């Protein structure tokens, strides 16, 4: 079996799949016609009424994804979106692809089985901060370390929306919610730090309302081989409205956002007044651009094998979102799990496909004659 | 269960002029017991293989602690292996051993009570040191204080003789000592006339990278054999003739092995790739190990981060067109129940193997029990019916796995396959099936629209059911024009869209139930073993109790009484005629290794006054005990006052 490399890796179209499945796909093409890859945003929509609250950030993300996906040149039939439970997890119903709206926190596990057994597919996971980081935390970190070929979109609104407003694992300390009338005691996760700590090969962050920035991170994530995690800051206008205003507000956004551009110096703020330089013990710190030598300013390199740099970058932001890096933190190449699994199958078959009769007989048989 | 009268025949003349006699037996039960580190399981398995290739019928019962290496020489560290072999068809590993091999004082103490008076005890006298005796609370040495007078004791220096045999092997004392299990196996092989070539080949294969270890083990094995042949300590050897078996090719197989092979075969016979998602758990892990070796068959195995991910990944693979499988034991099923509900809702094929062990909670990880039946039936939120299938013997795990896959694929449903620790580790001779003669499990994927939208455009309705099976179409991602979304929210009939409509939920709940219930039309009628056709008492069981119940029924019939045996493979749904069959008997007895779970189901479903007989000792039933229980019931049915027509079948349960 040989594989056909694909220009950008969203799944591995053309990878060998089992004969029966291949036949079903061929039969469907015979009766339905060739799969279409020249698609528009409207081709990605379903007939289902979108049922998020008016003004929810999820609408913006849905529109951005529907506009972006056709540019990948992959047929809708070859895409699968798997989600867990929560507001964001309704996503698959609105995408004209294959989809599964599964159970709370388990989407990465379900998608792992699908992606590992069907490396030809483009597999996406849509999840939220509660789904991915609380009930599904274990599945998330293991998916990331395994590097199964899939793209995880983590909608982080820093609140539980579908259960009507309890604090989430990304809510800030002291958050007053229905379940924490005197303020939350939990220290929040930084999803990017968590992912890098789990040795994720691709980690990015984007803002729901920033169509251009979001699309760029999505494109790089889609092209990545292995598990890509994209944290998307998403406004819940009902239970946590304005959670990201510090970064969205033109008056403050520039000051507190650190745009990550591979190969560019990390200079930000009004008139580029701030920058990132190396700090003590391998960490990074913020400095005034005019107070440091240009050579001290860190030039962003998302491809560094050692995750320490990307991790240090993720630690620049505080829980109130000051100094938040946006863009691609880390993008390194490592073999994808599904690819390696396929390689093992092929290696096992170098001696020929399995012989069931020989397997059933085993090494030691005896014969009773009539 | 009585041995034939020993017929002594003139034996061989050993070197040195020692004349040994040969006694012919119809059956023997041997128990090998030692420390967890003594290699008793390996020794037992080798003795089993020798016995299988000799042609005896056999049944085994491994029994080992959950600790990998409990402190040496202590009672909790004792591991044992019981083998029953015979010149006729047998059904159980034997109620009690005839021969006990005890490698140390702990093994003797832990097992002696099971050995009937007069039984043969072979002990390694080298291990009966003051320190080892003290460890298990022997104040005096039982080999010397007369406390073993009721048994025939042969005290042999197994360790010292092994060391002597290996003194030129170049191995250190500790390493050489480890071959004492092979010395013991050699001795037993001589005693019971077992063929030895297989063990020599096995040792060469097992230690091919360490030829000096292979050589030492083979030397110890041969020394043990020759010791038996020459020593005066054993004047008699025993012969158990091969059992008459149906002509054909046989192999020895354990339940877990058979189950794994059944899953590989299911993949081959359906033409679908097998995907196993599993998390290691005793006593199911060997299925994961076995399947991991069969990648040449396109089997993908995924060791997940937890039980939930194991089933989740399997279900994801099923969505993609694989035969998804997850294997576990009871505690794992608890964790999988949420995803099982999703599988019920999404109506995808999935085989869930539960190798039951003692519970609740962590319970008895290495011991057997049948206490997950109600969990399999009902252990999910909501109305979430699924088929339940149970194998009856180690070899039957193969057929049961194929049947579980058949139902899962044909009806697009998760199926629970309930094996248990006894079946998993027990072994028996198995007629090797011919691949081409196995059931055809081929199912069709949906490849074109099956409906039309209001404007007439063709569309795919993922919940438009097959009118006969009520299964929904299976369209896999990649299939052109068939994009659809499924999930855990209630589905609208036919379209599969989210629906909160009350009437629709009522309909869908009933459809899911009807689909599972309808499988009853696709399974064989109740198999009743009632040789005379006039028994008034029936014994009903499921799963691994088949052997002990069958053996008990034979004993009862040998005593001149009549009894019917009914054993369920399909526990849900049950055979369509089961209620009618049970109604034919005056009394129905249901032995189970739980607190009466099948009995509860039978009483609820058929209003039959089932008499439940239960035991949860972590060990299989003893046939003789079961026979006594059933005989009491038979004797209580007075033939002079009662006839089947005089008693209404449901009299007990309906009043």
Automatic annotation (TrEMBL), chain A:
Pfam assignment, any one: TPP_enzyme_C
One GO BP annotation of this record: cellular respiration
Gene3D superfamilies, sorted: 3.40.50.970
Stored InterPro entries: 2-oxoacid:Fd_oxidoreductase, THDP-binding, TPP_enzyme_TPP-bd
Domain Thiamine pyrophosphate enzyme TPP-binding: 85-232
Molecular functions (GO terms): magnesium ion binding; oxidoreductase activity, acting on the aldehyde or oxo group of donors, iron-sulfur protein as acceptor; thiamine pyrophosphate binding
Keywords on record: Oxidoreductase
Domain of life: Bacteria
UniProt name for this protein: 2-oxoglutarate ferredoxin oxidoreductase subunit beta
Organism per entry: Geodermatophilus amargosae
UniProtKB/TrEMBL annotation, chain B:
Keywords recorded for this protein, A-Z: Oxidoreductase
GO molecular function: magnesium ion binding; oxidoreductase activity, acting on the aldehyde or oxo group of donors
Domain Pyruvate/ketoisovalerate oxidoreductase catalytic intervals: 37-226
GO biological process: response to oxidative stress
InterPro entries (alphabetical): 2-oxoacid/accept_OxRdtase_asu (IPR022367), Pyruvate:ferred/Flavod_OxRd (IPR050722), Pyrv/ketoisovalerate_OxRed_cat (IPR019752), Pyrv_Fd/Flavodoxin_OxRdtase_N (IPR002880), Pyrv_flavodox_OxRed_cen (IPR002869), THDP-binding (IPR029061), Transketo_C/PFOR_II (IPR009014)
Pfam families cross-referenced by the UniProt entry: POR, POR_N
Domain Pyruvate flavodoxin/ferredoxin oxidoreductase pyrimidine binding: 273-495
NCBIfam families in the cross-refs: OAFO_sf
PANTHER family associated with the record: 2-OXOGLUTARATE OXIDOREDUCTASE SUBUNIT KORA (PTHR32154:SF20), PYRUVATE-FLAVODOXIN OXIDOREDUCTASE-RELATED (PTHR32154)
Name of the protein this chain belongs to: 2-oxoglutarate ferredoxin oxidoreductase subunit alpha
Annotated organism of origin: Geodermatophilus amargosae
